[in-house]
Amino acid sequence: MAFFNENYRKLKAGYLFPEIARRVNAFCEANPKRAERLIRCGIGDVTEPLPSAVIAALHRAVDEQANRALFRGYGPEQGYPFLRAAIAEIDYRARGIDVADDEIFVSDGSKCDCGNILDILGHQNYVGVPDPVYPVYVDTNVMAGHTGAASSSGAYEGICYLTGNEANGFVPEPPAATAKPLDVAYLCFPNNPTGAVASRERLRAWVDYALANDTLLLFDAAYEAYVREPSLPRSIYEIHGARRCAIEFRSFSKNGGFTGLRCAFIVIPKELTARTGDGGARVPLHGLWARRMSTKFNGVSYIVQRAAEAIYSPEGRAQVSALIALYMENAAILRRGAAEAGLRVFGGENAPYIWVATPAGVGSWEFFDKMLREANVVITPGSGFGAAGEGYFRISAFNSRENAIEVARRLSALR
Ligand code: MLT
């Protein structure tokens, strides 16, 4: 007899974005005329084609596969040296951040990395998760059996929720010194969904907390390319001491538009360690992750890694900057539209997400339905990102300019 992983039973009905898609499809089937004017600002999926430097690199790499001398079979599980070197040099060392090529592990996506990292962490960890936040952190911990059941408000027993709200600028503080210390804490900046960014001082507080409490920080920087203000940190390793307490997650999805192509990476510094179960010894996480990758992963395809490398070429970098500028101008347009509707608006200044308070007394899903029915615009209900997201919604700036202008118009017309 086979037994299934009963932790899956604890999960709330469906993952957020498929649930949104289900509701949108039902609406479109029932209202074909309105479906024609539907604009999707829900899931943060890029809309613009890949940069031409990436396309050229893809073509070259494909042609190599037709040539016996250049053909590639299995590649290194941790990523090809050419890509690891480009990442470490341009994303880190050129910015004065100490990261070695072999501390980069190339993967097929940050969502997978966020879930897979739990493979090398113990089950006894007391985990802190921001609320609201990217739902993958909570759900993967539920699947791994790190939580109890969910309460009626949707909070899982055993998780420490780190509330982001208007008072703290959606940047949660580390727990008080008197609270049970966290073993692991997720951080996501620029934040999905609120678009909030953490200043150097706020990240310093987290690194100080982590070093004092032996906490591992899982720092999701998937949206770092959207940081506009030069004083804001883009990597946790800009904070002294972070190499001893943090893993960083990065992605090519939102900068190079690789949501379909798939490529990302994580950074695990060699001096980063975690305790054995009895607390007696410390083990480097770098070696554990390398072992995990070589056992469970055969690496990202050569073709895709050449495409990712092209993002670091001078043309690639200029083309990525232009893409980001386009989405950030959309964000400014959407921010204005929401403000003109008389709503309280956050984020969207160093992130591609605009976080908006629903009108008084209107719930997140209720507003989602209203936007779908009346404005024919798909947004993401804030409560899908955690209980503290109730009363808010997220608008994604990943869209064409024409659509961003139209959504802003429809939003302001709601007033
Ligand atoms: C989002 O919309 O929150 C993201 O696109 C989801 C993801 O990156 O997996």
Describe this structure in words.
This protein is an alpha/beta fold and 415 residues long. The radius of gyration is 21 Å and the shape is globular. The protein is built from twelve helices and 15 strands. The chain has two domains: 7-49 and 316-413, Aspartate Aminotransferase, domain 1 (Alpha-Beta Complex); 57-310, 3-Layer(aba) Sandwich (Aspartate Aminotransferase, domain 2). The chain starts with 15 loop residues before the first helix and ends with a helix. The strands form four sheets. The protein has a seven-stranded mixed beta sheet with strand order 2-8-7-6-5-3-4, sandwiched between helices. Strands 11-12-15-14 form a four-stranded antiparallel beta sheet. The chain has helices spanning 16-30, 32-35, 52-64, 81-92, 110-116, 136-143, 200-213, 285-296, 302-310, 314-340, 364-375, 401-413, and strands spanning 39-40, 104-107, 127-131, 159-163, 184-188, 216-220, 246-251, 264-267, 273-275, 282-284, 345-347, 353-357, 377-378, 380-381, 392-396. A hairpin with a 5-residue loop joins strand 11 (345-347) and strand 12. The model has no long low-confidence stretch (mean pLDDT 96). Helix content is 35%, strand content 14%. Helix 3 runs antiparallel to helix 9 and helix 10 packs parallel to helix 12. The structure holds D-malate.
